[in-house]
Amino acid sequence: MLVYLIRRLGQSALVLVVMAVLVFIGIYAIGNPVDVLISPEADLAEQQATIARLGLDRPLWEQLWLFLVNAVQGDLGRSFVHGVPALRLILERLPATLELALVALVVALSVGVFLGLWAGLKPDALLGRSIMTGSILGFSLPNFWLGLMLILVFAVLLQWLPAGGRGETVDLLGIRTSLFTLDGLSHLLLPAITLALYKTSLVIRLARAGTREVVLQDYVKFARAKGLSPSRVIYVHVLKNIMIPVVTVVGLELGSMIAFAVVTETVFAWPGIGKLLIDSIVNLDRPVVVAYLMMTVFIFILINLAVDLLYSLLDPRVRLSEAGA
Amino acid sequence: MARTAEPLLRVEQLETQFFTRAGVARAVDGVSFEVARGEVLGLVGESGSGKSVTGFSILGLVDPPGRIVGGRVLLEGENLVDAGERRLRALRGNRIAMIFQDPMMTLNPVLRIDTQMIEAVRAHHGVDRAEARRRARDALGRVGIPAPEERLSAYPHQFSGGMRQRVAIAIALLNEPAVIIADEPTTALDVTIQAQILYEMQKLCGESGTALVWITHDLAVVSGLADRVCVMYAGRIVESGPVDAVLDRPRHPYTAGLIGSVPSRNRRGVPLAQIPGMTPSLLALPGGCAFRTRCPNAEADCAAEPPAERRPEAGRTLRCHHPVGEAVS
Asked: Most buried among A43, B43, B144, B187, by the most CB within 10 A?
């Protein structure tokens, strides 16, 4: 187990380095930030001074080397626009996105597993079929459109919920969160639903397929032959087996929810890292874009590791061996 | 053999049918038998003869599109066919238990053995976890699992096939049921393990007076284990009686065919006899006697109507127009 962890961490470090090089070179290829940062009226000397200050006059390999050396020390550069460390900018915005993604995940898991289980147990019932049809809708609706429609109905027509922004927040262990104020929750609801809908549909389909397979297994019949109650059979014997594929897929999807909440955050003006990314791309704020991508890779690695560990908890047949990874 | 007046389990004219798109399959078609306390009944037949469905019907575990459409299952005088799901649940695993064919599939792979055993105790008895665990440990010990205390915390995949079947048997024995239905429990096991398990089942049931319905296609198993035997073909019991009488002097051509196709040391080098043809599909049974298309004794009247059950001698039943050893009329 420990050897497995060390090996995984080593691999993760390698992935981070490779990613850093790719991201840095990729970002170098798009546009010249100086054009955006300096007013057109500035004279040549001023321009030269700015370029030298930002280090943009040095050759690519030297810039890359400097970036890597600083990155190892936790310094991903300063934002050209805001003049503060890019990493700090991202960490400031990260809680908002994490909060959004986690709430969406909880919604997707609880609603999806419940509906999927139901549809799997009663595949021929009207409700079971309706759930499956609904999940196709959930797959196909574009994220931004759904967000706009929710705003239209609940914020504009009914005026029950706010249309955008984050609302009131409180500090919890130094992290700003809107989970504990009514105003914050009301702001969170619509974007979370928007972000969760696709994942919910995914979980419904996974849970339904798993349920239909598991209920046919001998061990379910044996559990019934033991005289167990239906709820014990479903919520212990069936549920634990269908959670294996669900956790695997949802774990990977959590990463993509955090990294690509961009559209939802833009529609709802949610001050998370997705919105920060869009703003930074528009302003050619290279350090922030790079830092964002590095943070995304880091989160993905972390989640994959967590999924693997969780997987071995759920399925006793999975051993985290030293050889495999 | 000493028998009490009222049998523990009596099955009367049981009918279970599967309503499929292709038609109605009469998987169990008027099956009757009874088992007394401490008795072992062998239920023999080929694949698809309806013997497993008979077992599931007794416990009320037939899944749609299957349904019990007629007959009675009397367990200690109580009709299980009319019993509600709640009452059935109270009896399953408590008064009547079942062991399945494939030990690799019967235990839930993601739950520990103790979880799966303790829940079986606590579903029927209001005892605390410690007491339930103690009973589980004792049951494992009784079926010959070494170091039962440690094995309780193991997962099914850490056991071999034979050990898993012992665990399944231990679960069936947990609440000391009156009847155990064993659906080919040794088919998937090595011959040596098979012999051990047969011996232990016989011993355990003999000690506790548990009646045993042993479903199998293996006549050798039946001859060594059962007191009486029922031979099933296409959903019906075609012949039944004390195991020695039926195996030594089979009357139904199907029983005779089954016995003839068992390999024997005495007939080395002689081509093995076999019953021609295959088990017919339950959706397209031949009219009259279902066996007539494969039967060496078949005559014109076999197609006319299905043979009624008769009693050629005391304690035996037979459904055949032209039994073995009877002069052709």
From this structure: B43
The verdict on a CB contact (< 8 Å) between B106 and A219 is yes
Chain A / chain B CB contacts < 8 angstroms: 77
CA–CA separation, B235 vs B219, rounded Å?
A: 18
Cβ contact B112–A228 (<8 Å): no
Instruction: Answer whether residue B27 is part of any domain.
Output: yes
Q: Which domain holds residue B116?
A: 111-173
Identify all chain B residues contacting A228, using CB atoms and an 8 Å cutoff. 89, 93, 119-120, 123
Indicate whether B206 and B69 sit together in one domain. yes
ipTM over 0.95: no
Taking contacts as CB-CB distances below 8 angstroms, the residues of chain A near B84 are none
Q: What is the CATH number of the domain that holds B282?
A: 3.40.50.300
CB A115 within 8 Å of CB A204: yes
Taking the C-alpha atoms of residue B265 and residue A85, their distance in angstroms, rounded to an integer, is 88
The total domain count for chain B is 2
CB contact under 8 A, B106 and A237: no
CA of B62 vs chain A CAs: smallest distance (Å): 10
Examine the domain organization and report whether B127 and B166 are in the same domain.
yes
In chain A, which residue's Cα lies nearest the Cα of B180? A225
Classify domain A87-314 by CATH number: 1.10.3720.10
Terminal alpha carbon distance of chain B:
36
What is the tens place of the pLDDT at every residue in A211-221? 999 988 889 99
B72 plus B155 within the same structural domain: no
pLDDT of residue A48: 81
Q: What are the phi and psi torsion angles at B9 (to 5°)?
A: -125, 125
C-alpha dist (Å) from residue B244 to A83, A88, B223: 97, 87, 7
User: What per-residue confidence (pLDDT) applies to A320?
Assistant: 61
